Amino acid sequence: MKYGFSSLALFMNSFEIMLDRASQDGFQCMEILCEGPYWPRSMLAKGPGQEVFQSYDIDIFLHAPTVDLNPASINKGIREETKKQMEETVDLAVEIGAKAITTHPGIIRRLEERVRLMALDFAVETLTECSEYADSRGICFSVENMPNRYNYLCNSASEHDFVVRECGCKATVDMGHANTTSNPSEFLKINKTIYYHLSDNNGEKDQHLPLGEGTMDLNLIKNIKVGIIELDSYESVLKSKKVIQQIEFD
User: Fold this and answer.
1) Within a 10 A sphere around the Cβ of 118, how many other Cβ atoms?
2) Most buried pick, 20, 45, 126, 132, via CB within 10 A?
3) Which three-class secondary structure state does DSSP give residue 117?
4) Helix axes 157-167, 113-136, angle to 10 degrees
5) How far apart are CA 247 and CA 250, in angstroms?
6) Angle at 47 between CA 23 and CA 25, to 5 degrees
């Protein structure tokens, strides 16, 4: 497995520090969470350049901003701003030479079936336009599955696969999110998956525990090709790295 970690584990540090740690600790890839100081619009305005990223043999992925954004919103203004920020993330990917970007499919605020169905249509429309923009710029656009809660879209393997097919994009499979469903192995069958998010939990809530500290069947991740460890501390990332290495040698 080619594995790396989310910048969430080293949030607020410079890219140089993150890339140095990744290189020193034997990681082959890294996903930048584009929130806060790494917001694409501000980074593009500063002109980040590609130099720092080209200095390391590490594949870069971007996680588009999702805080307060929603491609499935019934508010057209929110959808338009969400689309704008996802396209800016694509532009940033081009600027720094990232391999792909991942985003969330959306959420509903009113728990009614008619609202959820409408939101799903909006999400497909918004994400299709973003995927087409990414294609035009030579960037892979990917949609992530979400935890097993009614208000989240792509909360099942079947709905995740539907959205990916309808939007003509790739899939990012979050195995921690998948573990909150009754059959997480179904997510491994989704076509066009570009990489995986890795964390553990108790099977009920998305807790972002280190691998091996929850209920996830670790055999499920044994044969995946690219995995991003998505945890909020670097110590936990290193713990999970050791678990992955043990799985690979078993």
Assistant:
1) 14
2) 126
3) helix
4) 50
5) 5
6) 5
Alpha-carbon separation of residue 142 from 64, 153, 166, 238 (angstroms): 10, 14, 12, 26
Contact 221, 196 (CB under 8 A): yes
Residue 109 has which token pair?
Answer: 């605020």
Q: Per-residue pLDDT for 59 more than 60?
A: yes
Sequence length of the chain is 250
Residue 56, Ramachandran bin (φ over 0: left; ψ between -120 and 50: alpha; else beta): beta
pLDDT in tens, 164-184: 999 999 999 999 999 999 999
What pTM was estimated for this model as a whole?
Answer: 0.96
> How many Å apart are CA 61 and CA 38, to the nearest integer?
13
| Helix, strand, or coil (residue 69) | coil
Q: Which two tokens stand for residue 242?
A: 């050791």
One-letter amino acid identity for 188? L
In the chain, count H helices and then E strands: 8, 8
